[in-house]
């Protein structure tokens, strides 16, 4: 089977602090991969390296069969990626349609294709009624939907999503989940970080867990379920006893 993401001892240092430590990921094409970890574990740093926003301090990586470190191939690979970054990276003074049009043109899509996909995405994300509103005026959930629409407009083979469900209401969350399932159903690969374990357990076919910059678990969801729930596994490998019941002294009976 083809491999969408491979990393080999991928490492990132910030001064004396090692955020990601010799990470070895393997994600097969057409899979829905959940990348989990506690706050500060190195999830967003990993995505930034995989998408070219940060250079690794050491190690190598391969996306869609191409060496990302090769400048001659990096741009061709990026045209096959979609990204919802940690900070969303929207342009505040554009409307949703203007922003999607800009992204589509950056991917060198034909104008007619950009217009068609803009219409479909704005309708699906329930943003078509906000034609005159600048993204500056959008709620957090609306910005998340617009960011996902921008990631989908090039019809990517590999989609990176950094906390796409954070701050999103139940209706929007259902739309996002259904859309991502469609992407995987047509053969795309989705790499997702989320703190909402229930969503990861329902959506993902594979899971990797990182703690203090190190990969502490990687496998299929089916394999994990043979030993219990995702929450049980997560707490077992990263909890360090913190999953045990704790109480405040003034709340004790």
Task: Describe the overall structure.
The chain is α/β, with parallel strands linked by helices and 253 residues long. It has one domain (3-238): 3-Layer(aba) Sandwich (Rossmann fold). Helix content is 36%, strand content 25%. The chain has helices at residues 43-50, 71-78, 96-106, 111-124, 140-152, 170-185, 197-203, 221-225, 230-238, and strands at residues 3-14, 17-23, 26-28, 32-36, 58-63, 66-67, 81-84, 158-162, 189-193, 206-211, 214-220. The chain has a six-stranded mixed β-sheet with strand order 7-8-9-4-10-11, sandwiched between helices. Strands 1, 2, 3, 5 and 6 form a five-stranded antiparallel β-sheet that branches. Strand 5 and strand 6 form a beta hairpin. Helix 3 packs across helix 4 (111-124). It starts with a strand and ends in a 15-residue tail after the last helix. The model has no long low-confidence stretch (mean pLDDT 90).
Any chance you could write out the topology, listing elements then pairs?
Elements: E1 3-14, E2 17-23, E3 26-28, E4 32-36, H1 43-50, E5 58-63, E6 66-67, H2 71-78, E7 81-84, H3 96-106, H4 111-124, H5 140-152, E8 158-162, H6 170-185, E9 189-193, H7 197-203, E10 206-211, E11 214-220, H8 221-225, H9 230-238
Parallel strand pairs: 4-9, 4-10, 7-8, 8-9
Antiparallel strand pairs: 1-2, 1-3, 1-5, 5-6, 10-11
